[in-house]
Amino acid sequence: MENQKRFVLVHGICHGAWSWYKVKTLLEAAGHCVSAIDLSASGINTTRVEEIQTLKDYSKPLLDIMDSFPSDKKTILVAHSLGGVPAALAADIFPCKTAAIVFLTSAMPDTKNPPALARKAQLEAASRRLQVTTFPFPHYGKPDRSLEFSLLGTKFMAMYFHQLSPPEDEKNKKAMENKNQKRFVLVHGLCHGAWSWYKVKPILEAAGHTVTAVNLAASGINTTRLEEIQTLHDYCKPLLDVLSSADEDKVVLVAHSMGGISAAFATDIFPHKISAIVFVTSFMPDTTNPPAYVFKNTAAIVFLTSSMPDTKNPPAYVFEKLIASIPPEEFLDTVFGSYGTCDRPLQTILFGPKFLAEKFYQLSPVEDLELAKLLVRVNPLVTNNLAGKRRFSEEGYGSIPRIYTICEEDNIIPKEYQRWIISNFPPREVIKIKDADHMPMISKPQELCACLLKIADMYA
Hints:
This protein is α/β, with parallel strands linked by helices. It has helices spanning 21-29, 55-68, 84-93, 116-130, 154-161, 200-206, 232-244, 259-269, 294-297, 317-325, 353-360, 366-375, 384-387, 415-424, 440-443, 445-459; strands spanning 6-10, 33-37, 75-80, 98-104, 139-142, 145-148, 183-187, 210-214, 251-256, 274-283, 286-288, 292-293, 303-307, 310-312, 335-341, 344-350, 379-380, 402-407, 429-433. It has 16 helices and 19 strands.
């Protein structure tokens, strides 16, 4: 494009690069170059809050990207809300690289006062509107240099941030009075996070059910770092924590893709808390082989095109069988890595943009592909070194009804392999979703929810 521009999008407080996923798609479709960045401790940036001691620390990802740009082409900075302060800092350091700053309903510092004055002015305006005198922000840092942090609550965001933004599938909302309320726990797949369920969660909630979408360790906005994950238990800890805190009501576990192994692991520990597992185009372990076996080969629990472990093999069995069957060139721009020790190496994976587009999201809306490109993170592969070789038990995981969902246009787990998963450890029921890619929660959310509601009525 002859008149191509370069945009850098800076998010507001408590948000991340993901908040620009619709805008980024539109600007790129118009032929422009667009970067949406996660500031420190925001989005999928792994910096921890206590590591941020200065505005420069907080703005480092923005400063790094501005520093990497050549000087012959200037950038349009677009800043939302409190992102105006980091944008002003970046422009102050790199004025020769900045064509303009767009302050989008944003704090806009001046050149006479300290940067924090812009935030103070915003808070004063907010306090007048909300009719409160102070905001009780928590603190960290040293006694002689106290620093504040904030986390916006869901009600606050609904009332003051997103009050005119459309809830997903608003037209399907029903009265919340539901005496037959079920509880769903949604488990994401590899490199993804709780965000991948953003279309499904409001539909199930609108039908009157309770829904929890979890971020597994080092996934989504979970702050665990990759090197802290040494076992399958470490990776699944957020899911185990949710189930351990659950009351007497049983849960319908819904697992997508690699989330099947995590769901099976959790079910083996808490079988008395699970009414059914749905494997959505998922790896479904058995009870004969190690957990990683299915990842080599593949399976279901209503494993949404998910790995469904069995009770004969180690947890990694199905997954390792799948990986071994895929030619290296099929992984396109996927990046593999390793960590751990020489005698116990652990493998990592990060799906590349081309791989996501061709294998995961080929039937999904383009803006959802863009959202995924902004939010995927490096994850550990569930190999035998991570998962161990102890198989899941018949009396635990093997005792719970499993439902497998086949996605007919899945380019990751082909129908033939999904059928192998099913034959390896036959589930109670098999459901097909037509015209769904590997991400049915994105490409066919209504159809998937209809399946889940039917399953909940039958098994929960």
